[in-house]
Amino acid sequence: MSISIDQVSKTFGAYTALDEVSLEIPSGELTALLGPSGSGKTTLLRIVAGLETADPDGRGRILFDGAPVTESPVNRRRVGFVFQHYALFRHMTVFENIAFGLRVKPRGERPLRDEIRERVHALLKLVQLEQLAQRYPSQLSGGQRQRIALARALAIQPRVLLLDEPFGALDAQVRAELRRWLRHLHDTIHVTSIFVTHDQEEALEVADRIVVMNKGRIEQTGTPDEVFQNPASEFVMKFLGDVNVFHGRVHNERPVFTGDAGDDGSVRLLVRPHDLAVLPQPGPGISIPARVYRVMTAGALVKIELLDGQNRLVQVQVPHETYRTAPLLAGQQVYLAPKESRLYGQASERLEYVI
Amino acid sequence: MNGTERQALSWGNLALSVTAVTIVGTVIVLPLLVVLREAFAAGAGVWAASVTDPDARSAVALTLGVTAVVVPLNTLFGVAAAWAIAKFRFTGRSLLLSLVDLPFAVSPVVAGLIFILLFGRHGWLGGWLDVRDVQVVFAVPGVLLATLFVTFPFVARELIPLMTEQGTEEEEAALSLGATGWQMFRRVTLPNVKWGLLYGVILCNARAMGEFGAVSVVSGHIRGETNTLPLHVEVLYNEYRFTAAFACASLLAGLAMVTLIVKTVVERQAARQTARGGEA
Prior knowledge:
The complex is a heterodimer of chains A (355) and B (280).
Chain A: E1 3-12, E2 15-25, E3 30-34, H1 41-49, E4 61-64, E5 67-68, E6 79-82, H2 94-103, H3 113-126, H4 142-154, E7 160-164, H5 172-189, E8 193-197, H6 200-206, E9 209-214, E10 217-222, H7 224-229, H8 234-239, E11 244-251, E12 254-256, E13 267-271, E14 276-279, E15 288-296, E16 302-308, E17 313-318, H9 320-325, E18 333-338, E19 342-344, E20 350-351
Parallel strand pairs in A: 3-8, 3-9, 6-7, 7-8
Antiparallel strand pairs in A: 1-2, 1-4, 4-5, 9-10, 11-12, 11-13, 13-19, 14-18, 15-16, 15-18, 16-17, 19-20
Chain B: H1 2-39, H2 44-52, H3 54-87, H4 93-105, H5 108-119, H6 126-131, H7 140-150, H8 153-166, H9 169-176, H10 181-210, H11 213-219, H12 229-238, H13 242-278
């Protein structure tokens, strides 16, 4: 089931949470809504679910497979919704939680007792928690609760599955495990899914497509590769992974990043830590002088922290093999040469430059 | 050193315990015993005669009748008000919250006077009611209204903090799973506050049976008609019929004991439920 979001706005008093957002979610894909808190991603998800209504401006519409659902309330929309804090029914067993959506169906559509039991057990098997049917939510771990919440949402055979920061309340290890498991589950059942996250790593790892949001607008939509390799804006570049920012100015139509460019520098050069080369002498292109501050060799990559001419911290990551050919000492003067970088002007506009 | 400290501590504990027992003994246990002793001072026969006196029987019937009407109504109002206040944000929400608290803040006697002022013969609505031959003040409807007013906050006050803490996510989950509003309320909201609700109902019940101040103002003390049990006790006492007064008081005390026992059972059940997994 494809989802179309068409010119949806949402204001809370004077605050604009969503500003005419339009978005197409293709059928069967797992899409991540990625953005910082306050970017409007959860509001958008709740509007798709029907838990929130778009501004009644006559334009905003939500369509499932081309048919508008804007007017249908949440309990008729048949969406599976998974909450950050699970929202399991605390006074019901795991079995009853999963069976809930089947038991509340109108008499004509309600499955028989035995069918319900079968369906619930099939779902418990799908989330690999068959042995927990008679437990209460408070007796489960966070990861187990979230899997039960997912099984409960799937019980009504939802047209779309919506997950609001599903791993947000879990600790790092469980989170990584559940992430892989969700991806695997999606590959098994192929229901069109949207999940909200503020964790770029999570989005890059799990999603087919990523929608980067900022201040109630969509900054960029694309595959994980596209948004990571080709960020459409300074915001996207900064939000997707670590990035070093060098402040400079334009001199003779060339950007200059020597020490005397102050905070009011008119251009910013954005470079990811692994796209910087550390050279003992200035190179032919842009070379930014810096002093080595600390070197951390424990890890998959060598992490080097340096201070540039304006005493700002710069992070560089190099493979161990590269580092071994030219080890560094704290305090050593070096030059940083960006291999891949992006230059942005005062109004965050992308600038092309030739070296 | 350590030993002395422990010694000092246990002296402190002992002093506190003695104080607590003394206070509870003088303020609660002793009066209860006095009531029972005085009630049976002239023997069980006199006690039985006092409580089966037609006026006493009518008072008991009125008290139980009023309670039977007031408690369900206030349960309904309380659940509705708590639901609105805890789960929604709307203009006038804090006003509603203050209104729920009003009966706690206003002295019952003042509450009674308000009803006289409203429904009395010379009150705002008195003339209108008089023409239609409806009597509110110095009649059973007045007793009902006064009790309703005084016991209004108990259920709502018990539920508001509980419902606020539970939030709205479980309700949203229920709706997203296709439940209707009523199914959501009956299968999710209500079971989640079951014990708190029962506790509120018990408190409301206890107060409805024992209410004196507001009822005293509006009832008119008409024996056999508008006298509730607490008012009947007062009437008897003022007539120097001490034994009869204490006999009826012992009935009230008995009702209070029943309430306490039910409350204890409910609390124990609630604790068991929580231990098993009522909390998530």
